[in-house]
Amino acid sequence: STQSTGHVVGAMFSRHSDRERGTFQLSKLPVALVEMVLGLTGIRHVKLCCMASPELREMVRAASPIGFDLPAMWRRGNHWEAVHIVVTEMLLLDRDLDPDKLLKGLEFAPKSADGCGGELRSWDLSSCSLQDLPESFGTLRVEGDLSLYSNLLTTLPESFGGLRVGGDLDLYGNQLCELPSSVGELEVGRDLVLHSNQLTALPTSFAGVHVGRHLNLYCNPLTTWPRFGHVKGLVFRS
User: Fold this and answer.
1) Residues 49, 92: contact at Cβ < 8 Å?
2) C-alpha separations of 80 from 8, 39, 101, 110 in Å
3) Where does 125-197 show beta strands of DSSP type E?
4) Rounded CA gap, 198 and 52, in Å?
5) What distance in Å separates the CA atoms of residue 218 and residue 220, rounded to the nearest whole number?
C-alpha cells in the first residue's frame, strides 16, 4: 500500500541522513529507491525530495514532465509543483519542520476544466518555527497574503527581493538582524510588515521597495532611515 511504502521510504531516508548536520544526504539514496518513488503518486512529497537532489536531477528530469526552472514553472502555471519544490527545500534545510503544518496554510485558486488557473492565493507560514528559507523562496508568486510572522528567522535569502506578493507580506515578530540587498526589488501589493524584529540598519537598496499600502517598521532599533519613494501609504517608524 502507499502508506506502508511511505514507511519504507521514511526508513530509508533515515538511514541515508546525516543526523549531526540535520540534513538529508539524498545523493546517497539508491537509484532503485528513486525509480520506485517516481512511480508513486500517493507520496508526492517524497518524490519532490528526490527531485531536489542535484546528483539525481538529470535522471528525475528525464522521468518528469516538469523541469527545475522555477520562474518558468510559475509562468507556465505549474504553481502547485513549484510550491512543493520550495517546501521540499525548506524541509531539507530543517528536518525538524512539520511538513503538514507547512502545507496546511496553502490556498490555491481552483483550476478550470481546461486546466487553467490554480494560482497560489495565499500561504500562511506563521508560527512554523522557521529558522531559514531556501533561495528558491524568492521565486514565489502569491496573489494574496504571505504570512511569515512569529518564526525564528534571523536572515532572509538573497533571492527574497524576487518575491511578488499581491496582498500583505508579514514578517512580524521574527529575529531579523539584517535584510538582503535584493530587498529593494521586492513588490508587495498591500502592507509590508517588519514590526518587532532586530533591524539596526536598512540596506541602501531598501529605498526602492514597492509597497502598495503601508510599511510597518515599528519596534526595530533603527537610527537612520532611507527615503521611501515607492510606498503609497504610511511608513510606521520606531
Assistant:
1) yes
2) 26, 19, 16, 11
3) 141-142, 146-147, 164-165, 169-170, 187-188, 192-193
4) 32
5) 6
Q: What pLDDT score does 116 carry?
A: 64
> Of 81, 65, 63, whose CA–CA distance to 73 is shortest?
81
Which residues are paired to 188 by β-bridges?
165, 211
> How close are the terminal C-alpha atoms of the chain, in Å?
56
Cα gap 60→67, rounded to integer Å: 9
Instruction: Please state the pTM of the whole predicted model.
Output: 0.74
Do 118 and 130 touch, CB atoms closer than 8 A?
no
Is residue 24 packed enough to be buried (19+ CB in 10 Å), middle (13-18) or exposed (0-12)?
buried
| Size of the chain, expressed as the number of residues it contains | 238
- Amino acid occupying residue 152: L
Give residue 117's pLDDT. 67
| The one-letter amino acid at 58 | E
Percent of residues in the chain assigned helix, strand, coil, to nearest 5: 40, 15, 50
Element (H, E) at 123: strand 120-124
Q: Is 25 helix (H, G, I), strand (E, B) or coil?
A: coil
Q: By three-state DSSP, how is residue 184 classified?
A: helix
**Residue 10, number of CB atoms within 10 A of its CB:** 12
Spans in the chain with pLDDT lower than 70: 1-68, 113-117
Q: Which residues of 59-85 are buried (b: 16+ CB within 10 A; e: fewer)?
A: bbeeebebebebeebbeeebbbbbbbb
Q: Could you give phi then psi for residue 21, rounded to 5 degrees? A: -85, -15
Query: For residue 111, how many other CB atoms are within 10 A of its CB?
Result: 14
